[in-house]
Design goal:
The chain has 209 residues and is an all-alpha fold. It is built from 8 helices and no strands.
Length: 209
């Protein structure tokens, strides 16, 4: 296995290192709420405790694992992508625009794996296409979720009109068109940019004669 570059090593530590602290922070936070805790101070203490446990796990049990992003098989990579897709979806309040970058990130990782793991071109392309389809499915699910949230909002037409300072009345049909066109555009953006990134990284990684 070729030595991972410094940039990719830092990227691996950041991507994998955020999962335990962020995941446990949210788990303790929402878990306490679901368990009926109403005191905001207690909820805050529990959430910070989850963050601390995650950081402790990163520095002890998971320390050696944090450098292994570029050696992960496809299914663990999908789990990582699913985790960040869910977090991005929540932090962006249901707008899936940034979720498209998760698929692009997967394309970069697979392209680098070809180099670091000495994968054949056929194996790399197979993994890239499989993850491309799955990441598209994840993005599609995020778009559907955003659409359902928007359509279930009774005053979405008025909110959109005020937010964009439109001089005409927004109708439910316009909302549908925006949802369909916006969702298809995001899927196309992820597809095209993922292909471009994969091709660029693979081409750059070819040994020079």
């Amino acid at each position: 296995m070729e030595k991972v570059s410094r940039f990719d090593l830092i990227l691996s530590v950041v991507v994998l290192g955020f999962m335990a602290p962020l995941g446990l922070f949210l788990f303790f936070w929402w878990g306490s709420v679901l368990c009926g805790v109403t005191d905001e101070n207690v909820i805050g203490i529990l959430a910070v405790s989850g963050l601390a446990v995650g950081l402790l796990a990163d520095s002890t049990l998971l320390r050696r694992k944090l450098r292994g992003l570029f050696s992960l098989p496809p299914w663990p990579l999908i789990a990582v992508a699913g985790f960040y897709s869910l977090e991005i979806y929540g932090l962006s309040m249901g707008l899936p625009v940034l979720n498209s970058l998760v698929g692009v990130g997967l394309a970069y990782i697979i392209a680098k794996q070809k180099r670091y793991l000495n994968l054949t071109f056929e194996k790399s392309i197979h993994d890239a296409h499989r993850l491309e389809m799955i990441s598209a499915g994840i993005l599609f699910a995020a778009c559907v979720g955003a659409a359902l949230l928007a359509l279930n909002e009774e005053s979405i037409e008025e909110q959109l009109q005020q937010m964009l300072h439109l001089s005409f009345e927004v109708t439910r049909a316009m909302i549908w068109v925006l949802i369909v066109v916006g969702g298809c555009s995001l899927l196309a953006f992820q597809f095209v940019l993922s292909r471009v990134v994969y091709a660029a990284v693979v081409r750059k990684s070819r040994p020079t004669s």
